[in-house]
Amino acid sequence: MSTATQSVLRDSEASVSKLPAWAICISDILALELSFALGFAVRQLLSSLFTAEIGLEQYLSVAAGMLLLPVINYQLGLYPGYLLGPVERLRRRVLATLGVFGALIAWDSLVARGVLSRGVLLATFAFALVLPPLAELAVRTWLVRRERWGVPVVMLGAGATGQALAQTFLADPQLGFRPVAFLDNRPALWNSSVNDVPVAGPLALAPDFEGRAVAAIVCLGDLPKHDAAQLLHELNFARVIVVPDLPGVASLWITARQMGSHLGFEVKKNLLLRRNLALKSVMDRAVALPLFVLSVPVLAIAAAWIKIVSRGPALYRQTREGQNGERISVWKLRTMHLDGERILEQWLETHPEDRDHWNRHFKLKHDPRVLPIVGPLLRRTSLDELPQLWSILAGEMSLVGPRPLPDYHLNHFGPEFRELRTRVLPGLTGLWQVSTRSEGDAQVLEAMDTYYIRNWSPWLDLYILARTVTAVLLARGAY
């Protein structure tokens, strides 16, 4: 065994830690008890609306009953949840919370006959859906910054698939995979590195990493068939993850199926299930209606401000491509001068260094068309998009989906991607917005929209909505 390989093994052995699992578990317990305290406070504030007297033991019963949830979360693999993507983690958390609180309510109704405080229980449930995931995010971010998050994995196959996968792991450490070495049977790659990950030697060295790397990731596209088949029989890692050579295929909601002596993968086409589309429609209107009502005062103030600083209407309408290729009207609060196109062209002529950025992103960080003060404020907070809540209520848009693009932007994409986008309603927010917003170019947008459409589910929508709140509050990447 080479000195370099021995060094890799020593480093990976020392990096396995139980701290992340305990940290997330403790944060869950603290967040749940905080949820109970806030639920108790809400019950006290609304005590005049309730006639029942609540004793101390009833409150304590709720606080104790909630501690079932960390036990369920542990059984669901959420501590620390390295092998789970963010959407799957959210799905398991929501279902576990619904199950535990539903069980508490059922037990109270059928067995205890009203021992628990229903008001405290329901208020606590609302907070418990939000606070533990936020606490987990904070703990995970802290652990990533201290380089205490993730487990060592060995990559079997150093070709294009393995390199791209390792780059993904390194670019997004919250996924929880830390590649410590590549193994590959091509001698030309030995004693080199790929994305700063050493190629330690041939596949025969895999047993040397057992017990030190938590998982082996087999990149089928980088291995000959006979090597891959033999490896899968011989590997003794606790986790073996097989990455098939199927670029562009959905990666969420894939189920392994036994088909006699063969292995099959069921790819769920969620966009073809009417019950899912009906659920998406209900979610859209249930969220958009109260938001639209609450936005009316904000719209009125913003419209008055726009009228003061610029002549012309406060609202801006543009016709864009919607579902099934139909043309829809997309409304915004106007944040630009009326002669914006002329101003932009003059700017690009006198600032040629900005033209390449415009051609790639279709945005400028310091856009000369934007109205002073009110324009940047509305755009950075995304408040200029509020009129589109009406389009959601009218069924022309969805809360989440590919953003409806101007024609000059859409024309830069190929016909296959444009046809793919028309399968779903355009969205007020989307995966591209919460991931990169204005910092991602057209190629990133195409990749993000394609991923969303091929992997769509109500859980992915909930995840994107949660990320949207953070992105808007931090004004990340918006201009």
Q: Your description of this structure?
A:
The protein is α/β, with parallel strands linked by helices and 479 residues long. It folds into three domains: 111 residues, NAD(P)-binding Rossmann-like Domain (Rossmann fold); 126 residues, no CATH class; 167 residues, no CATH class. Helix content is 51%, strand content 13%. The protein has a six-stranded mixed sheet, sandwiched between helices. β1, α8 and β2 form a beta-alpha-beta unit. α2 runs antiparallel to α7. It starts with a helix and ends in a 5-residue tail after the last helix. 31% of the residues are buried. The model has no long low-confidence stretch (mean pLDDT 83).
